[in-house]
Amino acid sequence: MSTADLSNGPVCPIPISNYPNVLLAHGGGGKLSHQLISTMIAGHFDNPALRQLHDGAVVTAGGAQLAFSTDSYVISPIFFPGGNIGELSVYGTVNDLTMCGAVPKFISAGFIIEEGLPMEQLWRIVQAMKAAADRAGVQIVTGDTKVVDRGKGDGIFINTAGIGLIPSGRAVAPDAARPGDRIIVSGEIAQHGIAIMSVREGLEFETTILSDCAPLNGLVEAMYPVSSGIRVLRDPTRGGVASALNEIAGSARCGIRIHEQQIPVNAEVRGACELLGFDPLYVANEGKLLAFVAAEDADTVLAAMRTHPLGAKAAIIGEVVADHPGTVVMTTSIGSSRVVDMLSGEQLPRIC
Amino acid sequence: MSTADLSNGPVCPIPISNYPNVLLAHGGGGKLSHQLISTMIAGHFDNPALRQLHDGAVVTAGGAQLAFSTDSYVISPIFFPGGNIGELSVYGTVNDLTMCGAVPKFISAGFIIEEGLPMEQLWRIVQAMKAAADRAGVQIVTGDTKVVDRGKGDGIFINTAGIGLIPSGRAVAPDAARPGDRIIVSGEIAQHGIAIMSVREGLEFETTILSDCAPLNGLVEAMYPVSSGIRVLRDPTRGGVASALNEIAGSARCGIRIHEQQIPVNAEVRGACELLGFDPLYVANEGKLLAFVAAEDADTVLAAMRTHPLGAKAAIIGEVVADHPGTVVMTTSIGSSRVVDMLSGEQLPRIC
Question: Can you list the domains of chain B with their CATH numbers?
Answer without folding.
Answer: 56-170 (3.30.1330.10), 174-339 (3.90.650.10)
